[in-house]
Amino acid sequence: MLIGIDASRANRKFKSGTEWYSFYIIRWLAKIDDKNQYILYTDKPLTGLMLDLISDEFNNECGYEVKYENNGWQKILSPYNNFRAKILKWPYNFLWTQGRLSLEMLLNKPDVLFIPSHTLPVIHPKNSIVTIHDVGFKRVARLYDHNKIGPDNKGGKKIINILVKLFTFKKNKADTFDYLDWSTAYALLKAKKIITVSNFSKKEILEIYGSKKNISKLQNKIKVIYNGYNYNLYKKISDKIQIEKVLKEYDITGPYLLYVGRLDKKKNLSKLIEAFYLLKQANKKLGHKLVLVGAASFGYDEVNYMIREFRLDNEVIITGWVKESAMPYIYNQATAFIFPSYYEGFGIPLLQAMACDVPIAASNAASIPEVVGEAAVLFNPYNVEAISRAMAEVILNQNLRKKLISFGRKQVKKYSMEKCAYETLKEIISI
């Protein structure tokens, strides 16, 4: 069987949740499947560990030579020599999936197409599988950007907008929100199977996109397969010298509370910063800082504003995006992990924190209670005082900290990218 996979997200340099899912699912499929052939479709040449699906040496993330074959094919090291990449060049920075990947599907269909993140090309094999991670853009629309899709110039954007309105009978505009909405509905309608990453996300998909007419078919089409994490990388670390070296590299000092994820509106960082301010006011001797790890995204200006507003310039450390090989060391030195998100389809950083024996205080919203079980102090993400109290508890209550760490060790054993890949492969080959 020839299996095609959209690897464009897995190949991004600054990865977050869905990109890491794509990256790891590809790596694990390469490890476990010696029977099928794979093509990875990408808009740009694969780099780093995407070129080597054998190695687990994350210190060499960017150290691999880019090797080409003829006609846009790219060589990849894989355990069973059954993976190749095809670079599908596209002159624009938008609509690669619907334009170039669709063209490839028209000319050279694989037996099965697997899309690890939401967007199914309009032209696709009848045997297509799509992973839809969440539908937060519908449930909490105000927290998502509505940027126009199209060329950098206004005229080009206007033309694209007119064309989209024309072809969707004025139902959609050419912006990121409407594109997410349309592409999700299209995938649910046209894909033969849908994977989602939590029972919460399945319930949300059915509530938002289900109807009396299609609900039964949709329920049977959607399979829940939990996310996982890199258990070779994320674990308790005793190497204090290496921990200090990594912390110095990212200018992290003192005891600290840790947040990991994109720095955007959906993650509720404004309330986290205000809650941290209240925590410091109520506990004057507390020497902890707040470390925010992640790339700036929609609403980042608000994060900077809140830091200035509460005069926390010397108390909040923003590292920016951090390479994967450094992350376990940053987790290991954290006093606690704080995850205040308004909405998550899963929340991979929760697994990473549990795997590193870090006690967690987290939002009680969306999929988070399902993922953490008893391994976190849960709080209302809309209540700043509740967030602050939870942070204090998880720092100061030593018995609670021990319980959370113990629960976390048990809970995290439920999740594995290896298991995720086996279950995904089962869905692919049974299609």
Automatic annotation (TrEMBL):
Record-given protein name: Glycosyl transferase family 1 domain-containing protein
Keyword Transferase among UniProt keywords: yes
Membrane-spanning parts: none
Residues covered by the Glycosyl transferase family domain: 253-411
GO MF annotation terms: glycosyltransferase activity
Keywords for this protein: Transferase
Organism, as annotated: Candidatus Falkowbacteria bacterium CG1_02_37_44
Keyword Aminoacyl-tRNA synthetase: no
Domain of life: Bacteria
Pfam families per the UniProt record, alphabetical: Glycos_transf_1
